[in-house]
Write a structure and sequence with these properties.
Radius of gyration: 17 Å
Shape: globular
Largest sheet: none
Oligomer: single chain
Helix content: over 70%
Number of helices: 7
Order of helices and strands: HHHHHHH
Number of strands: 0
Structural class: mainly alpha
Length: about 180
């Protein structure tokens, strides 16, 4: 029980710290990242660019990213959020106006983060350079979810774990299928 209490205290402290960032750059960049990541538009756009400009490697990376993103979103939003109900961080902790635009669903885990990490990790397994490029907005998505009070840091961490698991699974399935057929 002590571990859970310490986790809650850390969640509270880190949520308040990230939500209170006063950087003008953060106030410009984070809302733009959130808008781009809404409904996975950012990742679909990245996949389209990779598929059209990246040759065979870009097409493979785009396909892997989209598949992993779909798995991560399904697990995060369709399964885990239904099983684990958690309220969003209290509005009083968020010292800016962005707090009013929060989803009503369970905060655990972060579906935005799961999709972002799932996409990016799967892309990185196929095309490391493109994965590194996708990592920057992926990190910003996680920060934005905490900054706006949509999620606790532990929600973002759990979403990242779901995304990594989806990428590992989708990377492994074609190889397992090929072995089964031989």
């Amino acid at each position: 029980m002590r571990v859970l209490a310490d986790l809650r205290k850390g969640d509270r402290r880190l949520t308040r710290r990230v939500a209170s960032w006063r950087s003008g750059r953060a106030r410009q960049v984070l809302p733009a990242v959130e808008e781009a990541a809404q409904h996975t538009k950012l990742w679909w756009g990245a996949a389209a660019v990779m598929a059209t400009a990246g040759g065979w490697r870009g097409r493979r990376a785009a396909a892997a990213g989209v598949l992993s993103m779909a798995v991560a979103e399904t697990v995060s939003n369709g399964v885990v959020k239904q099983l684990w109900q958690r309220r969003r961080p209290p509005k009083e902790w968020i010292p800016h106006e962005d707090v009013h635009d929060r989803p009503e669903s369970s905060s655990f885990p972060s579906g935005h983060t799961a999709a972002a990490v799932g996409f990016t990790a799967a892309v990185a397994m196929v095309w490391p350079w493109a994965g590194a490029a996708c990592a920057v907005p992926t990190v910003l998505v996680g920060c934005e979810r905490i900054h706006t009070g949509a999620h606790y840091p532990s929600d973002v961490t759990a979403g990242a774990a779901v995304g990594l698991a989806a990428a590992a699974l989708t990377h492994r399935v074609p190889r397992l299928a090929a072995r089964a057929l031989t």
